[in-house]
Specification:
Blueprint lengths: L2 H33 L3 H26 L8 H30 L1 H12 L1 H22 L1 H50 L4 H7 L41
């Protein structure tokens, strides 16, 4: 593999960690008006993300063991971009519907399964495929360590991006747009054709950024950026003990 290929693979691992943590933080903000900023909501999001990531790692390991399995890497990243791009249109409805049908605690888990589950699954599956791409050139141990380091750095970046930039200043739609864009760029860098990458980002067009507030064609969850803290849930979850 050329140096450009190694850099692209490292960027893919970075983007996978960046996007999954950014999406977790953004999903917490999106679900707050329905479930509140409580330990129950964050427990549902984090636990669900870890469960789907475990499944994704298992799938990625199986794919990476196949002779041509690493070719699935750009498609997994493209799928993650599509999932992130759809949230501005579907996220609020999913959260409200889950709370109405299942109640506060099960609803938070159900909404998390639909919002963070699919992207966490495909982004986690990308990690073993990054190792499979690098291992023939630098060895399995070095490849695993390098991918883990890139993924951890990406996770730090995604967390800081969502907490300190996207939520206070860009709004949720802008935050999800950049999370989708990072995944799409990684997909392009690892071999995805421009047309599928563009189709993955299509739900964000034409009004990705909050330049036309109140427009009928804007995503239904558009809202002005704010630094106001959520004081609590509209309906508090029952005490567990």
């Amino acid at each position: 593999m050329t140096l450009a290929g190694r850099l692209a693979t490292g960027f893919a691992a970075f983007a996978a960690g960046w996007s999954v943590m950014a999406l977790e933080m953004l999903d917490g903000r999106l679900m707050a008006p329905v479930f509140g900023q409580t330990i129950h909501q964050w427990g549902a999001i984090i636990g669900t993300a870890l469960a789907f990531m475990a499944l994704g790692y298992a799938l990625g390991g199986r794919l990476g063991a196949r002779p041509d399995g690493a070719r699935a890497l750009p498609w997994l990243l493209g799928a993650a971009a599509l999932f992130a791009a759809l949230v501005p249109w579907l996220g609020r409805g999913i959260a409200a519907g889950a709370e109405a049908w299942l109640g506060p605690l099960p609803g938070a888990i159900g909404a998390s399964m639909l919002l963070i589950g699919p992207p966490a699954f495909v982004l986690a599956a990308a990690s073993p495929l990054c190792v499979a791409r690098l291992a023939p050139d630098i060895g399995a141990a070095r490849a695993s360590g390098l991918v883990s380091a890139c993924q951890a750095l990406g996770s730090i970046g995604g967390t800081f991006f969502a907490a300190f930039l996207a939520i206070p200043y860009l709004g949720l739609t802008g935050g999800y747009a950049l999370a989708a864009l990072v995944a799409a760029l990684a997909a392009l860098a690892t071999g995805l054709r421009p047309l599928p990458a563009a189709l993955a980002l299509l739900p964000l067009c034409p009004d990705t950024w909050p330049s036309r507030p109140g427009s009928a064609s804007s995503p239904p969850m558009w809202r002005r950026p704010t630094t106001r803290r959520w004081s609590g849930a509209t309906r508090r979850p029952p005490r567990c003990c």
